[in-house]
Design a protein that fits this description.
28% strand; 5 strands; alpha+beta
């Protein structure tokens, strides 16, 4: 790793580390942990997702076209328009969105799993 890149990664923590330590000492450990967690969330520059079966949870930057918000709560939906089905919940924290939602509606989940299994079998067949 280049020295400039290392400085950009560690530079902000030169200030945030002492702040977290002071919060730990003079407020509470919970306050310090929440502070560090929020700093890590707000520093996200690329989308990150974790799939948990039919559901996924992730964090991603807000689109530039979105109105500037400090905090917001919204529904994630399947599809467009007023008739779209609710898929999950999003929480907007400044420049970042944290969300958890279903990948596909419950009725479509068995068909989705079958198509995924067929796709994986086809890939394995090509490799052999």
């Amino acid at each position: 790793m280049r020295p400039g890149k290392t400085a950009r990664l560690l530079g902000p923590w030169a200030l945030l580390g002492p702040i977290a330590y002071l919060l730990w000492q003079y407020a509470s450990p919970t306050t310090a942990l929440v502070f560090v967690a929020l700093e890590l969330l707000i520093s996200v520059r690329r989308p990150r997702f974790v799939d948990l079966g039919r559901f996924t949870a992730g964090v991603w930057p807000v689109t530039p076209a979105a109105p500037p918000l400090i905090f917001g709560v919204a529904w994630a939906t399947h599809g467009e328009g007023r008739n779209a089905k609710i898929a999950g919940l999003e929480v907007i924290l400044g420049p970042v969105v944290v969300g958890a939602f279903s990948l596909v509606p419950r009725r479509e989940w068995p068909a989705y799993k079958r198509s995924q299994a067929a796709f994986k079998a086809m890939q394995e067949e090509r490799r052999s």
